[in-house]
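SUBJECT: A protein chain and its fold
Encoding: whole-number codes for local backbone shapes
RECORD BEGINS BELOW THIS LINE
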Amino acid sequence: MFGRNLSDDSEEPVHVDLSSMIDCVFILLIFFIVSTVFVEETGVTVNKPDVGGASALEKNSILLAVTAEDKVYYGGESIGVQGVIGKIKPLLTETPDMSVIIQGDKAATHGLVQQVHGQALLAGAMKDRVSVSTK
């Protein structure tokens, strides 16, 4: 007969085998770690101009920020216009169709934002994959 009878007085210990459940949990954990996409933020707050019809950010993209003080940031580090190629060229070599998004502050110099745009193109970004972010 399967199971235990309620009036059974035997002293057999009952244990639950959790090893298969733990295996499933670890497999799910590994799956979520491998499938997660990490977006590296610029590390500074940029006051972007308001433009109607803006689209959402892509998950796998390179974010560059140009602040109101005309400084260029990538990953929280000030890189300047000259550092754009050195920072994003290895990323674009790895994934050539990756988007480059420039977050230009509305008080930033327009020419500097365009210089960053030009440097991104020189680093190997596709022309239609470089954009300036707005609100």
